[in-house]
Structure formats: structure tokens, C-alpha cells
Write a structure and sequence with these properties.
Layout lengths: L1 E6 L6 E6 L2 E7 L1 H4 L17 H11 L8 E4 L15 H9 L1 H8 L8 E3 L2 H10 L7 E6 L6 E9 L2 E9 L4 H11 L8 H8 L7 H4 L3 E3 L5 E3 L19 H29 L3 E5 L6 H10 L4 E4 L7 H13 L18 H10 L10 H13 L4 E4 L13 E5 L5 H10 L8 E5 L3 H4 E2 L12 E3 L1 H4 L11 E2 L2 E3 L5 H14 L3 E6 L11 H10 L4 E4 L2 E4 H5 L2
Parallel strand pairs: 1-4, 4-5, 6-11, 11-12, 13-21, 15-19
Antiparallel strand pairs: 1-2, 2-3, 6-7, 7-8, 9-10, 13-14, 14-20, 15-20, 16-17, 17-18, 21-22
Helix pairs in contact: 5-11, 7-9, 9-10, 13-17
Length: 546
């Protein structure tokens, strides 16, 4: 059977196709439109559909609109409550009610009656509980808002969801974090990860006061309402300065959010007796909180959906319909679900652009040449295979550098045009990870947990060691990404360090590179020493010596 999942109500519009129970294509609209997050989450944008990603996903799956057995839309207006402090929220709901017609207009041949509304947090839950490796386990969802809730706690048993607790709006951990993001001078519903990074530079001296506003209630729910932030620190203007009371406030809010999430997870463990926890929702992108849950909540394993933000609800909506109709296949968790090009197609892109390139004879030969560039402290743009679904660059669309030089943190932040308090992340061979990192799950293939860098390694890989001694690692195996695994081995043979720096292949304010044109534009405008495009290698010296 054939299902299309769509997220479009708030931000990160996306489309996913599930074919005969398997996820075969998934992409966010921003990768096509080149507009970060696809659109802003305002009521007036709710009508905007991920038209380009819908059409691509159907084409990738070889499915025409009239062949679809169902379309899942990840918001149900029938149960939605209007937000009283937003005078235009009724416009959002009106657009959502009209969504079946909008979708049919965008996809000629589709019968609008095939469109089903899937509750927002149920779609989030399915993206974890049905797409992940465990079809039986507890599931925890937390974000800014859905129809009338900000949280869902429950369990899947053989793919069937039972909901045990929800949190009614306006209490919302996600909205508290969004409000703080805005107060700290960043873009809300976009830059919350910057607050998490800034928190590492602060002291949580406001925790006692903030617990009045953010805390678990012991029944699977919580209180979470933004206080008057001015009580703690003046509103920050984003002028490039940071630290002081603003960092302390970020650290304090991060702390109470972590405490609340740990208590919610513990409550869920007690209620269900489940050994594993799956997580989704925008709050599940808070890797520091995820690590505390992994360490303190009592589960044997914690699996977090890589596309935990709203884009992932497109995945969950499609899987919910497949599960409803008894058409789920065994899960094959991966984030590599986006666009890709053949080796010959990539070569034609380079030839058409009149870019000189070489094609080393094997994966190992390419890895050896790139490792040499890294050892000489060159930055490499790496474009290989299917693009990632979700916000993390996982070795398919990555900027890679040498982790052994502390100045490479500042250098990469300069290349990307972003704040200097922002960390970069390490990729590490899975079989070597436990020698270097501890305090988090291994393997950790999706960069969704923080680990402690062992003291004896901190001076060896200073570029990826955050100010608090932590790192948001990605473990790499031959099965998950053979090209990056070969690169890590080659770099390790040269330097004794089986780690490289990984950050997303983009510059500030832009979506990640997705197609070859994007990669060539970045390579031509950023100080990058080499570009890997599939099996092909472009060196900057050759590129500009024409």
C-alpha cells in the first residue's frame, strides 16, 4: 500500500512516502526552497504546503497521486483549541480544515477524501515508536504545541499506542524555551539550539526561582509557563556579545527543563515497566536533556527520532495510516532518506560547471586523499549518498575538519558565519568510541546525546570538546556510512586519532546543502580546501587555477 505523510501547519514542512510498510522517501521543503525551516510558524502561512518535497517523494517512490491509498496530515483541527493570546489562530485552523482541497490541487489526480488528519502528538509518537527499532516500548513526546497539548506520554505494544498522560496548553516546555530564545535575542522556533549551547557557559544560579514556573507535577504532567524574564536578565540584543547573566539564565532554564523531562521519563517508566524509551518532538532535539534521561530515568535504552522536530510528524502521519491498515514492515531506522545522484550524474554536474576533478579508484583511495587534506588542516565539504532527513548533518552533507587543533572551532564558526559559543561535533568510529567518550549511549549514530570526553583525550581533540568537557558525538560504522568510516580509519592511521570534526554543510541562516548545485555554490564562496561529490574529488587549487 502507498501512503503520503505531510507536515505543514507550523514550521519545517515536509513530505514522506511509505510504500508497502517501508519508508522510501522523506525530505523537508527547505531543501528545495532554500528557505530555512521552510516557512515561519505564523497562522498566515498554514496554507503553504511542502509542494516540492511532496512531488519529489512521490516520484522517488514511483507513485502517482491517484495511486495513493491514504494521505496523513499531521494536525487534526477537529480537536484543536484556539490560542487565546493569538487573535489570528482561527485563520490557521481554517486553512488546516481546507488542507485536503489544497493538497488535491497541488497533486492533480488525488482524491481529497483520501486525506486523513492525524493528531500532531500521535504523529510525533509514531515517528519514534513505529519508525524506530522498537515496536514495543514507552514513548515520550514534548514540543511547543499541538492541537491543545504540548506533551504525550504512553507506550507502544506491538505497534499499538496507548496514551497514558498529556499536558494541556498553555503549559509547555517547548514554549518556555522558545520564549527564552526570543528574550536572548535569537529567532524563536528556530534558534533554540543556540540557547542550549549558550547554557554551557553559564552558572544555573536562577534555578530555585525558576522551579516555581517549571516543574513536574508527579502525575505524568507538569507546569511550564514563561516568567517575566526581565527579573533575571535584561532582554539581549543580538550584537555578537554573550555571557554573563544571559548565559546564567540559559543554564538555569536548561537545568529545570532537564529536571522536568527526567521526572516525566521516570514516571513513564514506573507506569509502563517498559525497558526502552523512544522520544520525539522538538524538545527531543535537546541532546543534553536526552543524555540525562538516558543516565537517570531507569530505561535500558533510549532511542530518539533523528527528525524529532515537526518535519518528523510527516513520517509519523504516514506510518500511523500504514499501521491502521495493517501494512507496517519491519523497521529500518535511518536518516538517509532524501535526494541522491548517481556517480555519473555527479560527474556531469562537474563537467557542465567546468570544474576540474579527479575520481580516485576506490573508496579507500578517496578516503586517503581526503585524510591528507585534513591532516594538513584543510576543511572538506563532503557530499555523498542520500541527504539526511532532519536537522543533523550525519556524513552525507557535512563540513569536515581536523579536531586536533583548538583554533578550528573558531575557524569553522567563521566559515559558517555563526556565533563563537557554538560547538562543533565529532564523528568517531563506532568501535573506538568507548576509548574516547563516556556517559552516553554507544552506538550513537544520530548526534542526539552528549558524552563526556575522557580527560586524556580533551587536549588531543580540543576542537570538538565543548567548554564543559562534553561532545555531541556521532558514531560511524561501515553499515551506516562506509565512506565516512573509511575516512575515519585513514585519518586515524595518519594521526592516531579516529575522530574528525563534523558540522552541517551550509552557512549561517541557510538550509543544509541538498543538491550538487548547492554544494558547488558553497564551495565557490567559502574557504573550503576540497569538495567530495560522491566518488569525485575537487581541490580548491585546481578549481581556481582554471
Amino acid at each position: 500500500m502507498r501512503y503520503l505523510g505531510i507536515n505543514a501547519t507550523f514550521h519545517d514542512p515536509a513530505a514522506v512516502v511509505v510504500l508497502d510498510g517501508k519508508v522510501v522517501a522523506a525530505s523537508e521543503e527547505e531543501r528545495f526552497s532554500r528557505r530555512k525551516h521552510g516557512k515561519r510558524p505564523v497562522p498566515f502561512s498554514a496554507w503553504e504546503l511542502p509542494e516540492q518535497s511532496m512531488r519529489w517523494a512521490l516520484a522517488e517512490a514511483g507513485v502517482s497521486p491517484d495511486e495513493l491509498d491514504g494521505v496523513g496530515y499531521s494536525f487534526d483541527p477537529a480537536i484543536a483549541a484556539e490560542i487565546p493570546d493569538d487573535p489570528y489562530d482561527h485563520i490557521r485552523l481554517d486553512y488546516v480544515r481546507r488542507a485536503p482541497g489544497f493538497i488535491a490541487e497541488a497533486l492533480p489526480g488525488l482524491d481529497p477524501s483520501k486525506v486523513s488528519y492525524v493528531e500532531h502528538h500521535v504523529a510525533h509518537a509514531a515517528s519514534a515508536g513505529l519508525a524506530g527499532p522498537y515496536r514495543t516500548g514507552a514513548v515520550l513526546v514534548s514540543d511547543g504545541r499541538g492541537e491543545r497539548h504540548s506533551h504525550l506520554a504512553g507506550q507502544y505494544v506491538d505497534g499499538e499506542l496507548t496514551i497514558l498522560a498529556r499536558q494541556e496548553l498553555p503549559d509547555s516546555l517547548g514554549l518556555v524555551y522558545e520564549s527564552l530564545t526570543d528574550h536572548l535575542g535569537f529567532l524563536r522556533s528556530s534558534d533554540e539550539f543556540k540557547v542550549m549551547a549558550l547554557a554551557s557557559y553559564g552558572t544555573p544560579r536562577f534555578v530555585d526561582e525558576l522551579r516555581q514556573f517549571v516543574h513536574a507535577t508527579g502525575d505524568g504532567g507538569f507546569t511550564a509557563r514563561a516568567p517575566e524574564w526581565e527579573r533575571f536578565a535584561p532582554r539581549r540584543i543580538d550584537d555578537g556579545t554573550w555571557g554573563g547573566a544571559h548565559a546564567d539564565l540559559a543554564a538555569s532554564v536548561q537545568c529545570v527543563v532537564e529536571e522536568t523531562l527526567v521526572e516525566l521519563a521516570r514516571w513513564l517508566r514506573e507506569q509502563t515497566g517498559q525497558r526502552v524509551l523512544t522520544m520525539a518532538g522538538g524538545t527531543a532535539l535537546n541532546c543534553v536533556a536526552n543524555s540525562r534521561i538516558w543516565r537517570e530515568a531507569g530505561f535500558d535504552d533510549v532511542w530518539v527520532q533523528p527528525a524529532s522536530g515537526d518535519s518528523g510528524t510527516a513520517l509519523g502521519a504516514a506510518l500511523t495510516l500504514a499501521q491502521r491498515d495493517g501494512d507496517l514492515a519491519d523497521p529500518e531506522p535511518t536518516a538517509a532518506l532524501g535526494r541522491s545522484w548517481t556517480d555519473d550524474e555527479l560527474a556531469r554536474w562537474l563537467t557542465t560547471a567546468q570544474v576540474p576533478f579527479t575520481t580516485p579508484g576506490s573508496r579507500e583511495a578517496l578516503a586517503s586523499e581526503v585524510a591528507e587534506v585534513l591532516e594538513e588542516n584543510g576543511v572538506v565539504a563532503w557530499f555523498d549518498g542520500r541527504s539526511e532527513f532532519g536537522p543533523r548533518a550525519l556524513g552525507h552533507r557535512s563540513l569536515i575538519a581536523n579536531p586536533m587543533l583548538a583554533e578550528n572551532l573558531e575557524r569553522l564558526n567563521d566559515v559558517k558565519g555563526r556565533e563563537q559559543f557554538r560547538p562543533v561535533a565529532p564523528m568517531v568510529l563506532e568501535e573506538r568510541a568507548a576509548e574516547i567518550f563516556r556517559g552516553g549511549p554507544i552506538p550513537s549514530p544520530y548526534m542526539l546525546f552528549t558524552h563526556e570526553v575522557l580527560p586524556e583525550w580533551r587536549e588531543r581533540i580540543p576542537a570538538v570538546t565543548h567548554v564543559d568537557g562534553s561532545a555531541r558525538i556521532q558514531t560511524v560504522s561501515d553499515e551506516g556510512n562506509a565512506g565516512i568510516a573509511a575516512l575515519l580509519r585513514a585519518f586515524g592511521e595518519r594521526t592516531g586519532v579516529p575522530v574528525v570534526v563534523n558540522t552541517s554543510l551550509n552557512t549561517a541562516g541557510r538550509p543544509m546543502v541538498d543538491d550538487p548545485r548547492d554544494a558547488l555554490e558553497l564551495f565557490g564562496s567559502a574557504p573550503v580546501a576540497a569538495l567530495v561529490l560522491g566518488p569525485h574529488l575537487v581541490r580548491r587549487a585546481g578549481f581556481f587555477a582554471r
